[in-house]
Structures are given as structure tokens and as C-alpha cells.
Amino acid sequence: MNSLDELLAMGGYGLYVWGSLGMCAAVVVAELMVIRFRRRLLAQEAGDERATEETTA
Hints:
Number of helices: 2
Largest sheet: none
Strand content: under 5%
Structural class: mainly alpha
Helix content: over 70%
Order of helices and strands: HH
Distance between the termini: 72 Å
Shape: rod-shaped
Radius of gyration: 23 Å
Number of strands: 0
């Protein structure tokens, strides 16, 4: 168990290292959520444009 504690502590820099990795993971997840939201929004807008084109044509 001592080696696991040493791994997590990383010579006193564990909080910085693990905090940085955690923030990076959070940013990646947030970016994926934003991309998914934008894709759905664009698909809805494209669907609305198609619906208006069909009624006017």
C-alpha cells in the first residue's frame, strides 16, 4: 500500500498533477457536451429550413 501512497503523492506534487489531470478531463467532457449540443441545434435548424422550403416550393 505504501507504493500506492507514493504514486498518489508523486513526491509532493500529487495534488497539482492529479488536479491538473482532473481539470483536463473535465474540460474534455465539457467540450464533448458542447459539441453534441451544437450538433443537435444545427440539425434542428436544418430541419426547420427544410420544412419552410417544402411549404414554399
